[in-house]
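INFO batch 0412 | record 1 of 1 | parsing
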Amino acid sequence: MKTILFAAALTASASVGLAAERYTLDASHSQVIFSYDHLGYSTTFGMFSGFEGEITFDQNDPSASSVAVSMPTKSMFTGWEQREGHFMSDDFFGATDEDVITFASTSIEVTGTDTALITGDLTMNDVTKSVVLDATLNQVGTHPQANKAWAGFDATTTLLRSDFGLGAFAPYISDEVAVQISVEAGIAE
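INFO prediction complete | emitting tokens
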């Protein structure tokens, strides 16, 4: 999920004369890592994978670019099966195999040469809230193995579990969850 700036950089590698280019997320190199404080004793980490999504870049008007991604709720991995089972229980997600987490951008604000703020609607646990991702473009170029235009970027945000109906055991287990996102995307064919 990158920015206008990211969009501008990507379109520089796009074919001349095309107003918009579509990039598809590379699920094998994209993930969301989250962490939270556990009773003040430790920081617990987990991740989501299994992304699907698309980034559209408008060469003439980068602010019209967009990002839309989804991932299965049950793709969560914490390294401890019992914790994952608890997170999928009615105490938290009450997740089914069909449940997904989605993000759709609503605006992009360039903040630097390779940084931007991406505002969008995050839907998780049947709740939709506006969130802001602090995004950084890592690299744009031709992927050496795929031999096509490719882009990579990172983003961070902080969420409150309780905003999404997931606030069980707060404040003992922190309501705040730090989120790190790293994705790669290749030009759609």
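INFO post-check: Helices lie at 4-12, 81-88.
INFO record closed
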